[in-house]
Amino acid sequence: MTQQEALNILKTGANVFLTGSPGAGKTHTVNAYVAWLRERGVEPAITASTGIAATHVKGVTIHSWSGIGVRESLSASDLDAIASKEHVVRRILKTKVLIIDEISMLSAGALSMVDAVLKEVRQNDRPFGGLQILLVGDFFQLPPISKNGEASFAFESAAWRELNPLICYLSEQHRQEDEKLLELLAAIREGRADHTHVSLLMTREDSEPEDGIPRLHTHNADVDRVNAEQLDKLPGNPKRYTMKGVGSPVLIEALKRGCLSPESLLLKEGAVVMATKNNQPAGYVNGTVGVIVGFERTTNFPIVETRDGMTLTIAPADWEIEENGKVRAKITQIPLRLAWAITVHKSQGQSLDAAAIDLSRAFEYGQGYVALSRVRTLAGLFLLGWSENALIMHPRVEEKDREFQELSGEATRAFAVLEETGERKVLEERFLKAIGASLTPTGPVEKRSTFEETLALIGEGKSLEQIKEDRGLTLGTIITHLEKLRESGQLSSEDVRGLAPERILDGLDSIQSAFEKTSYKSLTPAYKKLKGKYSFDELKFARAILAGE
Q: What domains appear along the chain, each with residue ranges and CATH number?
């Protein structure tokens, strides 16, 4: 099926499972459909199965969006509790189209819980409360993490069977970076990898990776070892952040097991780190990668410069377990972990120019396929080790994939007839009327960004302290917003001056001199030039005033 054929099916309001190999255009098709909806005044709910996947689609996790959180099952009281949360109810009731990306990593149980919540909140017994559902992903990617060792795929759930989505299996290939790599991946996917493909892979085994190239391992123990070795190479003593816990000891232990930040976190300036929790207003999400550039002078909180150039002060975060609206247990830790090396699981959905990959201890179906499909070219692949297990795909997935391809062919043929007769267009118009959309493009829905929320409060004449309080954000995050608003031209230098503390205004000349002698791009050189007299947040505030002057 082509992208356009899949898009035409989606426009009729059909529930769809959109799949295909990496590079087939799944993301492009989703983006085209989202744009089409927004032009007609409809804002779809965009979610994903994991925090990292959610960053790629600029959405939130389905667990957060639906209110199911970290639950593994849903009791009647749980359902009542979720259905009585005003913000969850409001969000679900206003939604007409729900998109769930990286469906391969969502368990059968989790999908059924989402279905139950939507039916309860919308008081509608149709699948998922009658919303249009778009499931996106590739079951050849990694399966859901399972405690008992046996994965339960979303397609095996009662919710999937009841939904009975149309299958749109994209068959074109739009990534043209490296034909040899594409053929290797296709052979692994289709279970036809032979000695020629293995030989091609082996040409990358003795290659020496450059420093700084991310390393992918299949086991957490290997990741921890590499990260500890790299941290030791940095000068100075590490700063230690110790996790705190409050509440039921049993629940605290459960939270610790599920938390990606370690109980004892060691950090140094120069350490490569990854965020372990979603905090979009603060500028980071689970999976954001950056480098420690310093530590806040008063709080000792780490300061991270992300890959896209943002400088963020990372304050401690809470992980909680609630029951009947009360917090039963809570742990608090800096939401970071070392990230010179990451697991193959964490790499899913990322696209890397180069990676050093160790598949010698692959233990799960699809791990080799996922790891190898992260790199764009064969030249960017540095193989640290491998085993034949790495190339084995899940037999249940192989069988289901053949079925998906057949069903997709049937859908293609059926909709070709509907297109010819004009019936597809009738279905499209009927769908748009049903969800209260415009039949013709009216322009996208205006959605206020987190920066614009801050701008609105500035426009109301609120002080920095009031804005911080109203938004529930750290000072560092608000200052990041000021920088972004200056860059976009929505705030002037004078606007930012009006919010600045006297200490920054008094020291502006010396700060400007330090920036001019070093660089405005990074705060660290100016911080060192001024011998730590001003904190990173103060330097960032000053930079927002001085930008463009």
A: 3-173+395-434 (3.40.50.300), 192-214+342-391 (no CATH), 220-339 (no CATH), 450-546 (1.10.10.1390)
Q: Between 365 and 19, where is the model more confident?
A: 19
Q: Helices 3-10 and 395-421: crossing angle, nearest 10°?
A: 70
In terms of Cα–Cα distance, which of 172, 186, 177 is closest to 25?
A: 172
Let me know the angle formed at the C-alpha of 178 by 173 and 183, rounded to the nearest 5 degrees.
Answer: 65
Confidence of residue 212 (pLDDT cuts 50, 70, 90): low
**What pLDDT does residue 70 have?**
73
Least confident interval from 164-178, 240-254, 389-403: 164-178
Amino acid found at 40: R
With 0-12 / 13-18 / 19 or more C-beta atoms within 10 angstroms meaning exposed / middle / buried, residue 399 is exposed
- Decide if pLDDT at 511 tops 70: yes
Q: Which residue has the tokens 């420093």?
A: 211
Q: What is the 3-state secondary structure (H, E, C) of 479-503?
A: HHHHHHHHHCCCCCHHHHHCCCCHH
Calculate the alpha carbon distances from 13 to 43, 130, 422, 432, 444 in Å: 14, 11, 16, 8, 19
Distance CA(537)–CA(539), nearest Å, equals 5
57 neighbors 34 (Cβ within 8 angstroms): no
Which tokens is 46 given? 């965009």
Report the pLDDT averaged over residues 515-543. 83
Say how far apart CA 425 and CA 13 lie, in whole Å: 11
The residue among 318, 278, 334 whose CA lies nearest residue 55 is 278
Half-sphere exposure of residue 160: CA atoms within 13 angstroms, side-chain side: 19
Nearest-angstrom CA–CA distance, 152 and 107: 6
Q: How far apart are CA 361 and CA 386, in angstroms?
A: 7
Q: In Å, what is the CA distance from 119 to each residue of 96, 114, 254, 495?
A: 13, 9, 29, 48
Long-range contacts of 511-516 (CB under 8 A, 24+ apart): 511/538, 511/539, 511/542, 511/546, 512/542, 512/546, 515/542, 515/543, 515/546
The mean per-residue pLDDT over the stretch 25-33 comes to 88
- Residue 417: its H or E element: helix 395-421
pLDDT tens, residue by residue, 412-469: 999 999 999 999 999 999 999 999 988 888 765 555 677 888 888 888 778 888 787 7
Residues 344 and 218 sit within 8 Å (Cβ to Cβ): yes
pLDDT at 59: 66
Q: What order of strands is seen across the sheet that includes strand 317-323? A: 244-247, 326-333, 317-323
Instruction: Dihedral sign for Cα 498, 504, 506, 510, please.
Output: negative
Number of separate helices (H) and strands (E) present in the chain: 24, 20
What order of strands is seen across the sheet that includes strand 166-169?
A: 60-61, 45-48, 97-101, 132-136, 16-19, 166-169
Q: Is 280 helix (H, G, I), strand (E, B) or coil?
A: helix
CA 69, chain centre distance (Å): 16
Q: pLDDT-derived band of residue 324, with 50, 70 and 90 as boundaries?
A: very low
